[in-house]
Amino acid sequence: MEDRLSRRLWLSVALAVLCWNSVEAQTNANDLVAMQALQQQWGSEIGWTGSDPCADAWSGVVCSNNRVTTLSLIYMGLTGTIPSAIGDLSALNYLDLSFNKGLRGQIPNELGSLTGLGTLGLQKCSLSGPIPTTLGNLVNLTFLALNNNKLSGTIPSALGALKNLAWFDVAYNNLQGPLPVSTTSPDKLGIDTWPNIQHYHLNDNGFTGPIPSEIGSAFKVLHVLMENNQFNGTIPDTLGNMQSLQILSLYSNNLTGPIPASLSSIVQNGTYAGLHQIRVNDNQLTGTIPALDALDQLEYVDFSNNNFDPQPFPSWLNASKSSLESILMDSSNLVGQLPADLLSYPALQGLYLQNNQINGSLNVPVDLGPELRYVYLQNNKILSIIQADNNAVLPEIQLSGNPTCTGGGLATASPTVCNTTSNPPATKWTSSLVINNCTSSCENGGRITNPNTCTCSFPLVVTLEIRQPTFTNINNDTLWGVLATQTDNELQRLGALSNVAFVTSQLWVHDAFYNGTERVNVRLFFFPLVGDTLDPISETFIKLSFTQQKISFTSPFKPDIVQDISSTLATNKAASKLSKGAVIGIAVGGALGVLLIALLAFLVVKHKRRAEDERKKNPFAAWEKAEDGQAPQLKGARWFSFDDIKRMTNNFSDDNVLGAGGYGKVYKGVEAGTGATVAVKRAQEGSKQGAQEFKNEIELLSRVHHNNLVGLVGFCFEKSEQMLVYEYMPNGTLTDWLRGHMSDPPLEWDRRLLIALGAARGLGYLHDNADPKIIHRDVKSCNILLDKDLNAKVADFGLSMLVPDANGSLKPTIKGTMGYLDPEYYMTSVLSTKSDVYSFGVVLLELLTGRPPVSHGGHIVKEVRNRYDRGGMDGVKELIDPSLEGTREDELETFLQIALVCVEDTSLERPSMHEVVKQLEVLVGPKAHLMPGHNTTMETRMTSRRAPAPMMPSLVSDDFEPASGQFMQGSSGSHSFKYSGGFAPLPVQPK
Ligand SMILES: *[C@@H]1O[C@H](CO)[C@@H](O)[C@H](O)[C@H]1NC(C)=O
Ligand SMILES: *[C@@H]1O[C@H](CO)[C@@H](O)[C@H](O)[C@H]1NC(C)=O
């Protein structure tokens, strides 16, 4: 339901902005005046040129029906003040100016005129002055984020009119005064009159007065973050009514009175998750801690540094022992003994109970909790430490200041637990997840190695603040892995909703550190798939996913706040301004239960197209007119204009021609913005398809991502041109290496094996994992390309869709290349994946013999088979590539047998591509990791200590897992190595 809706929204956006050259030109006159004022202020920073924001597709601006509806200018380097003219954009429903640290001055009152706004983001700028009362007019607002500025004054009660508000974040400002509530404010409005509120983020300000009891009626609230203020009075009983509450954070205030027992009613129940964290430390709370044993989901409790009466250690915590990660009760007036099984709690990482009067003995049980790292008990009255197992590896136990250390105890404990100097928990960690041992370093200009792919580029850096971490030590692969996996899963999910492809190998959890408080900052690096910087669509997608709180992390990483977004390349933004990307709409199903649309424009269009006749030629016209489902659903592929490509290829210069074929010519091109090299395939007259077919094709191609398939970067469909833009393969085709200009020095045997395996995996992916499954139909050595590491990638898949014949019925036309063509297919016209297997067998024979499939009128299949049948390996000896002399004959023979079974006459006798991959893996296995600089999937698997990361299409072939361990144990290069995994070798009978 939500999915369909978001698709619809996406479609309407696509129609509005993807086809920008047919947009009805003029921006509405009122909007135009306002936008001109913004252009004056920010035009040069953003690169807005031209005179019409809608027709000239200004970056970050989206129009609908000639009205400006979206301004999304996150991290754009904006400076100065926010022009008040922005308030005249009366159709605006989305405004986000976050992460522009040069943005100063006050929030203009005029923003209150934008009554259609659903989202208002002004996070992390340098705004000062008060929160305008006029913002109370924005009745449709669901998301309001003003955090991390220098705002002062009080929260105006008028904001209480925001009936739809779900997210309210004013944290890290200089706000003051009591919180407005309906019972006392003159307009009877306040922070308690938001029926849909889920997030109260008010921490780190100078608020005074009470925590209002009125907020207890906000039963949808998940997070109450009010720490680091000067709230006084008691913690209201009514908080127990907040059934959805998960985090209650009130530390570092001046709160008095007891902890209300009513909190015990916030239990897990149906859709309610139960209270996970209670942080009330550093107040002046009194009485004793009530029994909250109904809260069996607690992960983190901090009651430290209050004025409690003497009390025993809360035995009720036992009820949540399977979830508890941290227990902090320093200076809590604890008396008596600790529970005997406390150190066995299965999830417990840290126990901090310093400066109490705990007595008796400390039991260190045999079944110590596996996560336990810190037991801080300094300055108590513990008489002895009883260790059940003297050989156990202990957590860091600190007992200094107890009688057992000072000699007043039953026994003097070992010095290690009595040292007064403890190692404080670390405050900074670098990722311990070694994904790949990349040998290449990025020599040029401060690029950073993506450890997933060993490529160099300038990643986008998202710094996340985990506001209330439940862990005490993040230096632990499991945690890093969980964070990576959560991020990955969420971006895949959002990407699917938004038609943006996110690939796992783009992400690296880089490091983490305490940012001077008790909050952990984590830095996530996002690398481009190709080129130096992320393409504008991916960049925007990632920014939005984080800044709009679309990513819903689960414990232990919530709540998280984006602290910063930056690039390791200072001029990154300038670069993406120059590159004319596509315009895309991103519709994301809301974590807030509300569907928000984020629409982005990243085009800098220099040439305005308005002539009516040009519009008639608009290649997208066919897609536009049609109903739903007609706009292309692209996964990360970009649209290029004809002029872009003309520039990239030096006006289709002959010097740039990489190759030519029946389809047309292939040009080398360099992208203006990123400097990335690409290959542009330009269809020639006669090989072009209809608009629908071309659309199908780019949709299909944009969905296929695999390390052994040449990736589609984008396309151009304009001026009756059809062009596909691919990643560039600097090492040309396999044919070149076997028989052409690259054949000196010849490919060594091991390299040939890896190329065969890579190509087989690529084809296997098309057959088994692509959706829909793809039959290549033209497998041949010149369609197997080699990247800079000589990794094989299959090209030209999907270029042979079913085409309608004269009667409109779909019939396959025989397609393929002589010498590679499956004879069965040729005779029956029945196409199957086994036809690709046949063609691939021919390629294997080419690798073995170095000969073209047809020479001197003879066919390689027939020749090899006849000779092998008659004389075995001796018979084929003279056909084998002379440069392979010295290669182990048994390896050559196994390879030959794999090839021959692929080229069996009938498809039934041929193996599947999947089986071919398995066979080649057996052959390759022991060597793969020996290849210098060869970044194989095996190395990836073997060195990865990452937690399970689903969907790693570019890294891992699905079928590889069972064999890897076996391979690595085999003695290197030895043929005696035997695969012992779960499949039977193919029966290969020489004919
Ligand atoms: C608020 O949203 C509703 C529903 O989308 C819409 O009908 C209404 O016109 C909006 N209000 C304003 C002031 O734009
Ligand atoms: C809370 O602090 C205010 C001053 O900011 C004071 O007027 C008020 O009496 C205090 N309330 C309590 C309950 O201490």
From TrEMBL:
Residues 652-923 form the Protein kinase domain. One of its GO terms (molecular function) is protein serine/threonine kinase activity. The chain crosses the membrane at residues 582-605. It is found in: Membrane. GO terms for cellular component: membrane. Its main location: membrane. Pfam families: LRR_1, PK_Tyr_Ser-Thr. It comes from the Eukaryota. InterPro entries: Kinase-like_dom_sf, Leu-rich_rpt, LRR_dom_sf, Prot_kinase_dom, Protein_kinase_ATP_BS, Ser-Thr/Tyr_kinase_cat_dom, Ser/Thr_kinase_AS. ATP binds at K681. Keywords: ATP-binding, Glycoprotein, Kinase, Leucine-rich repeat, Membrane, Nucleotide-binding, Receptor, Repeat, Serine/threonine-protein kinase, Signal, Transferase, Transmembrane, Transmembrane helix. Its EC number is 2.7.11.1. It is a single-pass type I membrane protein. Coiled coil: none annotated. Residues 1-25 form the signal peptide. The keyword Glycosyltransferase does not apply. This is non-specific serine/threonine protein kinase. The gene is LRR-RLK2.
